[in-house]
Design brief:
The protein is α/β, with parallel strands linked by helices. It is built from 25 helices and 13 strands. The strands form three sheets. An eight-stranded mixed sheet has the order 5-6-4-3-7-11-9-12, with helices on both faces. A three-stranded mixed sheet has the order 8-13-10. The termini are far apart. Its main location: membrane. It is a multi-pass membrane protein. It is found in: Endomembrane system. Pfam families: Cellulose_synt (PF03552). Keywords: Cell wall biogenesis/degradation, Glycosyltransferase, Membrane, Transferase, Transmembrane, Transmembrane helix.
Length: 728
């Protein structure tokens, strides 16, 4: 029997993990017993506050148990590329790479071309590699940048091949590497860097000018596609093959063949709903199906460049494994970020997700499709149902190349596949392609594929396969999380509801994983209860927790101490510092009280027909001063976002309650009152401590990233009124 192309290993340290799980379950059970047996009598002061806090604790326990079930059976995979090469090097399938961009201002063309150049330089037979860029903004600047990139690629690809350049993004490579004057390769390195910088300078100059010069327009007939009336929301379909991989003359500077490189801007009309990124991906599915029809598809965001030359071969180790490869529909890779601060200011690394939760999902039938850094079987995206008897097929089977068709004829024929009307009265967005109607079209698409009998797999190689750009302001981070939470909640409430639609089709653990993410929006309510009501009760001298001298104090203290100790140990085990862990806790609080809350509100409004769906593109660039503050670990506020009003109000409320409660205790409450309110004081003090950046931004900072005076005054006024609200 042939050796496997990959291996699967269960997670280590299971005994310690089960001790933690059982201990926490016992602590939670005792807390629930206390709440059930100590309900205040009807009419007692603070009864409803006590009940609200109890309900919040019940939710937190439910949330913890769901998270526990997702983590309990982690699987880690290792691939063997040498075995793949030995058996299948001549039978490797064609691979189509899809890159999506939507706005040349928020996603500058220089970022897009770096991503495109990085995947064009993959260690893979160029005649079997095709790269398609979907420009949903229909920008002439993006097209010009890609045209420049197609020329630069003739030098960049052989440079990467010769020097094993990794990462393969020119901007990232030259920022991370250098050569000494005595190095024999210094001249080539310097020349390539200058070639890239010259290209970047030309692109930036045209962007700054606001139009493409006539001299440049004369270089390519495609510029005639853009007229004076062309806008990002109203333009015809454009398909331009920048590098034709069929052409024997399409060679790099070393004389080797080059991958196919295609620009696609699907048609946009104001009276047609374009279905955001899902619509763009479906247009690419159709266009690529006529140009090269690669059986394997990689979807990647425009800011997520290739950091390794080997991800395609890693993914194929799973797809082409003789024993189990036919079971897998997609292979999801971990997503890492190149611009994180030393202590991960906005908790954007998602290290525990990569190292714990996704391997746990892999043990339950497969991870989610997250929309980027994922390899798919084309047939699965096109609606194929899994069948053990019929699915053992060779991936190298692909559509014959159309040698006789000219580039112009092929462009014109595929243009019709990217028009607004093409999908009318078809199954695109429903039974075929990426699903429509949800803010996280990727998640719902992956789940529907798994419900058709397919499995997915998760890979997190030692060298990160992809590197992207994380948000550099608090607003960007919170809005991004809001979109995810909103999409997951819409998914949970849709016809594809995991426990209903997935019943009998997928494993229970996978359904629970989706429930965990889908419940983020609901988590905002118990979190707000817990960070507001106990603090207000301090001012009124009302206890909602057991006193220090009570037996029931022990389970509360144990759960608080043990859960935080385990959380810190786990973060430290995966390379995080104490400050990184602390920032993660702060961001968890901020996401729960703003991103999740606004996701819940928006979803409710959409269900009531009051609001429409929208897609927010996260900016990939920041102003110089903003970037400097980010690199120094200073949180960026600087706007009148309602999210900041909520955060500031919660912070001010806890500060006022801590001070007011301390004054009351010193003025007459004595040690008895302190004993009764000790846990509330601890919770309130912890919230004040974690919100120190808000107080600093409100009262001491004078830079543009501070909290605006209007927001500070409004939050102080709301917090002051809240302190005097009667507690029932």
């Amino acid at each position: 029997m042939e050796e496997r192309l990959f291996e699967m290993k269960k997670g280590r340290g299971r005994v310690w993990w089960w001790l933690y799980a059982c201990s926490m379950q016992l602590g939670l059970l005792l807390i629930w017993v206390y709440r059930a047996s100590h309900v205040p009598e009807a009419g007692a002061r603070g009864r409803w506050a006590w009940i609200a806090v109890s309900a919040a604790e019940l939710w937190f326990g439910f949330e913890w148990l769901i998270a526990l079930s997702v983590r309990w059976n982690p699987v880690h995979r290792r691939t063997f590329q040498d075995r793949l090469s030995a058996r299948f090097e001549d039978k490797l399938p064609g691979v189509d790479v899809f890159i999506c961009t939507a706005d040349p201002t928020l996603e500058p063309p220089t970022i897009v071309i770096n991503t495109a150049l990085s995947v064009l330089a993959y260690d893979y037979p160029p005649e079997k590699l095709s790269v398609y860029v979907s420009d949903d903004g229909g920008s002439i600047f993006t097209f010009y940048a890609l045209l420049e990139a197609s020329r630069f690629a003739k030098s960049w690809i052989p440079f990467c091949r010769k020097f094993n350049a990794q990462p393969m993004s020119p901007a990232l490579f030259f920022s991370k590497s250098s050569v000494t004057a005595h190095n024999s390769n210094v001249s080539e390195w310097t020349a390539m860097k200058k070639l890239y910088e010259d290209m970047e300078r030309r692109i930036d100059a045209e962007m700054k000018h606001g139009d493409i010069s006539n001299e440049i327009k004369a270089q390519h007939e495609a510029f005639s596609e853009w007229g004076s009336k062309t806008t990002s929301k109203d333009h015809q379909a454009i398909v331009k093959i920048l590098i034709d991989g069929r052409d024997e003359n399409a060679q790099d500077t070393d004389g080797f063949a080059m991958p196919t490189f295609v620009y696609v801007a699907r048609e946009k009309r104001i009276n047609y709903h374009h279905n955001f990124k899902a619509g763009a991906l479906n247009a690419l599915l159709r266009v690529s199906g006529e140009i090269r029809h690669g059986p394997i598809i990689l979807t990647i965001d425009c800011d997520m460049c290739a950091n390794s030359s080997q991800p395609i071969r890693d993914a194929l180790c799973l797809f082409m494994d003789e024993e189990r490869g036919h079971e897998y529909a997609f292979v999801q890779f971990a997503q890492y970020f190149v611009n994180l601060t030393e202590n991960d200011l906005y908790a954007s690394s998602f290290k525990i997700v990569h190292e714990v939760y996704f391997p746990g999902l892999d043990g339950q039938g497969g991870p989610f499709y997250t929309g980027s850094c994922c390899f798919h079987r084309r047939e699965c995206l096109n609606g194929r149902i899994y069948s053990h008897e019929t699915n053992k097929i060779w991936l190298e089977r692909q559509r014959p190349k159309i040698h006789e068709e000219s580039v112009g004829a092929l462009e014109e024929r595929t243009r019709s596949l990217a028009t607004c009307s093409y999908e009318e009265n078809t199954q695109w967005g429903n039974e075929m392609g990426v699903k429509y109607g949800c803010a996280v079209e990727d998640i719902i698409t992956g789940f529907s594929i798994q419900c058709r009998g397919w499995k997915s797999a998760y890979l997190n190689p030692k060298r990160a396969a992809f590197l992207g750009l994380a948000p550099t302001t608090l607003s960007q981070s919170l809005v991004q999380i809001q979109r995810w939470a909103e999409g997951h909640l819409q998914f949970l409430l849709s016809k594809y509801c995991p426990p209903l639609y997935g019943f009998g089709r997928t494993k229970l653990g996978l359904q629970i994983g989706h429930i965990f993410c889908g419940s983020w929006g609901f988590s905002s309510i118990p979190t707000l209860i817990y960070v507001v009501i106990p603090s207000i009760c301090i001012v009124h001298g009302i206890s909602v927790f057991p006193s220090v001298s009570s037996f029931w104090f022990a389970p509360f203290a144990f759960v608080i101490a043990f859960s935080n100790a385990f959380s810190f140990w786990e973060s430290h085990f995966y390379g995080a510092t104490f400050k990184c862990w602390w920032n993660g806790n702060r961001m968890d609080l901020y996401r729960r009280t703003t991103s999740y809350l606004f996701a819940l509100v928006n979803t409710t409004l959409k269900l009531l027909g009051i609001a429409d769906s929208s897609f927010v593109v996260t900016p990939k660039v920041a102003h110089d001063e903003t970037l400097k503050r980010y690199e120094r670990g200073i949180i960026e506020f600087g706007s009148t976002s309602p999210m900041f009003t909520v955060l500031s109000t919660v912070a001010m409320l806890n500060l006022f309650c801590l001070i007011g409660g301390a004054v009351n205790v010193l003025a007459g409450g004595g040690m008895g009152a302190l004993e009764q309110l000790s846990l509330q004081f601890f919770l309130c003090a912890a919230l004040v401590l974690i919100n120190l950046p808000i107080y600093h931004a409100s009262f001491f900072r004078n830079d543009e990233g501070r909290i605006l005076m209007y927001t500070t005054l409004l939050s102080v006024a709301i917090a002051t009124v809240a302190c005097f609200v009667p507690v029932f």
